[in-house]
Amino acid sequence: MRVATARLDHLFGLVGASGCGVLLTDCDGVILDQRCKDSDLTVFREWGLWPGADWSEASEGTNGIGTCLTEKRSVTIHRDEHFFARNTGMSCMDAPVFGADGGIIAALDVSSARVDQTEGFNRLISAMVAQTARSIEADYFRATFPNSRIVVAHTDDSEMSVLLAVDADDLVVGATRGARRVFRLEPTGLLKPRPASDLFGEGEECLGFDAAERAAVMRALARAEGNVSEAARRLGIGRATLYRRMRRLHIGE
C-alpha cells in the first residue's frame, strides 16, 4: 500500500472528476484502499465499494475485481455483465498486480456508475488502469530488491513489466512475472540465481577468469576516465601491477 499510494492518487486525479472511484484490493479481492469524490461517497458505500468489502468471485460472482483476480488478466465488466442484478448499474475496469515472486498480490480497479458511460470510454480508462498497475508492479519490484541493479528489458506487450534484479556478482536474483515469461524462468516462487550473461545471450566468450578480470579492469578505467593511477586505486592494487595486467589482457592505454 505504501508503494501504491502515489500511483493511486495520480490515477484518481485523471478519472475522479468523471464520477469514477479508484480501488486497490488484496489478492483475495478484499478492498484495502479507495478514492472517490465526496459527492460520490454515498453511492460507493451503498454498492459496497469500500475498504474491507469482499469482491471475490466467490462473494459477488462475475465482477471486475473478482474476475480479474481469477483470470489473472485485465478485464472490463460493463453494467449487465455483472452476475448480481444489484451490481448492474456500474462499470468496472480492472488490472492485476503481480509481486516479485510472480504471484498475484492485488487488483487495481476503477468503477463508475455513470449511466452515460460508453464502452469506448471504458477502453480508455482500462488502458490507464493497466498502465498504473504495471507501474505499481515495477515500483514494488524495485522496493523488493533495493540493493540490486534493475535491468529493464524491451517487450512489445504493454501489459507486462519486464524487469530483472541483478546483484553485485552479476547474478540475476529476481524477475517480474513478465520477465519470467520472456526469459523462460520459473513462473512463480524463488528464482534460481543465474549469470546475467546467460540470459542476455552473450555467449561462452564472456566466461572465464580472464574475461571477468578484463571486464573489471575496463570498468575501473571507464570510471576513472582512463586515468590508470585512479583505476588502480579503485581496484586496490598498485599502478605497476595494473599496467602488467593490462598488458597480459591486451588492454592498450
From TrEMBL:
<keyword id="KW-0614">Plasmid</keyword>
<dbReference type="InterPro" id="IPR002197">
    <property type="entry name" value="HTH_Fis"/>
</dbReference>
<dbReference type="InterPro" id="IPR029016">
    <property type="entry name" value="GAF-like_dom_sf"/>
</dbReference>
<dbReference type="InterPro" id="IPR009057">
    <property type="entry name" value="Homeodomain-like_sf"/>
</dbReference>
<feature type="domain" description="DNA binding HTH">
    <location>
        <begin position="212"/>
        <end position="249"/>
    </location>
</feature>
<feature type="domain" description="GAF">
    <location>
        <begin position="6"/>
        <end position="133"/>
    </location>
</feature>
<dbReference type="Pfam" id="PF01590">
    <property type="entry name" value="GAF"/>
</dbReference>
<dbReference type="Pfam" id="PF02954">
    <property type="entry name" value="HTH_8"/>
</dbReference>
<dbReference type="GO" id="GO:0043565">
    <property type="term" value="F:sequence-specific DNA binding"/>
</dbReference>
<protein>
    <submittedName>
        <fullName>Transcriptional regulator, Fis family</fullName>
    </submittedName>
</protein>
<dbReference type="InterPro" id="IPR003018">
    <property type="entry name" value="GAF"/>
</dbReference>
